[in-house]
Design brief:
With 395 residues, this protein is of the alpha/beta class. It contains 14 helices and 12 strands. It has 2 domains: 139 residues, Aspartate Aminotransferase, domain 1; 232 residues, Aspartate Aminotransferase, domain 2. The protein is globular.
């Protein structure tokens, strides 16, 4: 076998989401798209269009042709773009930010890899709550770090005593994802403040900075008046990795940013590290065209009422059948409990009804399965009979 054994192993570990997505393509070719109910991949732009303001700004920016519009730029991104992002993020989080606190990135995944490349020495540990986004382990491994998942409570809220117990002298980063993929949980203000107090204590105990990294691509997708607390105002050694993929429905454009607390330790060296890491990871810089577009439309977002309707439609339908599940506070995922312990077997049974979901095992929580509901309403409605049949077969 020509490929590296590590990557061969990673392919096996990471295959579920893409496998179900690819199985869906085969089923659609066999049975027709309207008879396949694909909830495998959180790919919003298929059914949730970008805002009109984004389209108009994209046309306007693309039509401009000043000298140097396609030239190299500072690795951290255009100054004016970073300035606009800093103004918006600072206002949202109640902190004072400048362009020097922002690095434009190739999506949230790119931002996380830049942060890990800059911060991690070999063997440094990254602690994060479980369930978690599938690729976190791979991002940490990219930079010779060690992943330390920590189980959340039954309702998927942060288990602060467990988080504290997991932090050791090897911990360099604690990472959270709120609203969470796959559960839709938003970690509340008390949890964020409690976690910040733990990190302050542990940093003093071990004589080293422990950074709080918050992965927030779903920050704007929240329901029922819930607010996502600010890590930047809660903890001095904190940063946000995020993207515009979900809030303006442009996941394929790969544009996001890192924003750091104004009080973070060693700001100048840290930002120089982010800029260098952006380059040597091969990104070089975030896409120029998209930087110019998002600069002009800070705060723009898709209609979150559309997602809320889909959430309620799906949640009410599954609950009426008898599934056990929490009502998501944000993002666009449901994470029901399977009626049997073997979530993989249950997901395969759903596939027999042309329903594509992802086993919870892939997210660090067996016995559950993930549903991405950024789909057409008819797909949700028409899938219910299959969800019912499989549930009743196992009940």
């Amino acid at each position: 076998m020509a490929i590296a054994k590590k990557i061969e192993g990673f392919i096996t570990q990471s295959s579920w989401i893409r496998k179900m997505f690819e199985d869906g393509l085969k089923l659609k070719a066999q049975f027709g798209e309207e008879k396949v109910f694909d909830f495998s991949l959180g790919n919003p732009n298929i059914h949730i269009d970008t805002p009109e303001r984004f389209k108009a700004t994209l046309r306007e920016v693309a039509a401009q042709s000043p000298v140097g519009v396609h030239a190299y730029m500072p690795n951290a991104g255009f100054y004016e773009t970073r300035k606009a992002v800093a103004r918006h993020v600072g206002g949202e989080h109640g902190v004072s930010l400048t362009a020097e606190h922002i690095v434009m990135a190739c999506g949230a995944g790119g931002a996380l890899n830049v942060a890990f490349k800059t911060l991690l020495d070999p063997g440094d540990e990254v602690v994060f709550p479980s369930p978690f986004f599938v690729e976190y382990r791979f991002y940490v491994d990219n930079h010779d770090g060690v992943s330390r998942p920590v189980d959340t409570a039954e309702d998927f809220s942060l288990d602060l005593p467990a988080m504290e117990a997991a932090i050791t002298e090897k911990t360099k980063i604690v990472m959270i994802n709120s609203p969470n993929n796959p559960t839709g949980t938003v970690y509340d203000e008390a949890s964020i403040r409690g976690l910040a107090a733990i990190l302050e204590k542990k940093s003093a105990q071990f004589g080293r900075e422990i950074y709080l990294v918050s992965d927030e691509p779903y920050r704007d997708i929240v329901y029922d008046g819930i607010k996502v607390p600010s890590v930047l105002s809660a903890y001095r050694n904190s940063m946000i990795a995020t993207s515009y993929s979900k809030n303006i429905s442009i996941p394929g454009e790969r544009i996001g940013y890192l924003a750091v607390s104004p009080d973070i330790a060693g700001l100048k060296m840290l930002m120089e590290g982010f800029g260098l890491s952006t380059r040597i990871l091969g990104f070089v810089n975030a896409p120029a065209l998209m930087q110019r577009v998002v600069q002009a439309i800070q705060g723009e977002r898709v209609d979150m009422g559309v997602y809320r309707k889909k959430r309620d439609l799906f949640y009410d339908g599954l609950q009426s059948i008898g599934y056990e599940l929490n009502k998501p506070q944000g993002a666009f995922y449901l994470f029901p409990k399977a009626p049997i312990d073997d979530d993989v077997a249950f997901v395969k049974a759903l596939q027999g009804k042309n329903i594509l979901t992802v086993p919870g095992s892939g997210f660090g929580r067996a016995g559950h399965f993930r549903i991405a509901y950024c789909v057409d309403d008819r797909t949700i409605i028409n899938s219910m009979s299959g969800f019912r049949e499989v549930f009743e077969a196992y009940r």
